Give the backbone structure.
Amino acid sequence: MLQKILMTYYQPLTPTCKMKTSLILLSVILLSLATKAQTVRDFSLEDLNGEWQNFEDIQGEQLTLIDFWASWCKPCMKAMPEIEKIHKHFEGKGLNVIGINTDGPRSISKVLPLTKALKVSYPVLSDINNELMQDLNISALPTLLLINKEGEIVYRHEGWALGDEAELNEQILKYLK
C-alpha cells in the first residue's frame, strides 16, 4: 500500500520537491513523538497537619485536579472557591482535587488559616521548596492540572478569570468516564 502511494505521488516529483516533502514528513513524525503527554510521577508532600501524603494514595479514581497556588496570589484566591465547588460537585464521582501551596518559609504560616477561611475541604499539600512545581514546569499561579488515572496531564490551565470554571467543568466532563 505504502509502495503504491510512493510510486503514484512521490516518484513524479522533482528532486527539490522530494526533499521538501521528506522534510515535511520528518517534521510531522518528530512533532508527533514530541507531543507525548507529560506525566506526573508519584510524589510525597506534607499536608497542612504535618502528615506526609503520596500522590498515589490521594489521586482520583479516574481523574485528579491539582491546583498550584500561593497565599499572595489574587487570582488564586478567586479560583479556590470555584475549585471547592467543583470538588463538592464531583466528590465520589471519580475526581479528586488536590491543592498544592507554593508559599515559602516566610508566608507558610498564612496557609492553614486561609484554607479554613475559604472552607477548603480537599487536601492541601505544601511544596515549600517548589520542587514539584519545577518538575512539572509550572511558571504561573494559579496553574491547574487535570491528570488521568495513567498519570498523564490531559489539561493544563494557567491563571484565573471569571468564566474559567465553566471551561474547567467542560474538561472534567470530557475526561471523566
User: Anything to note?
Assistant: The longest strand covers residues 63-69. Confidence is low (pLDDT under 50) at residues 28-35. The chain has two domains: 2-34, 44-175. Residues 98 and 123 are 5 Å apart (CA to CA).
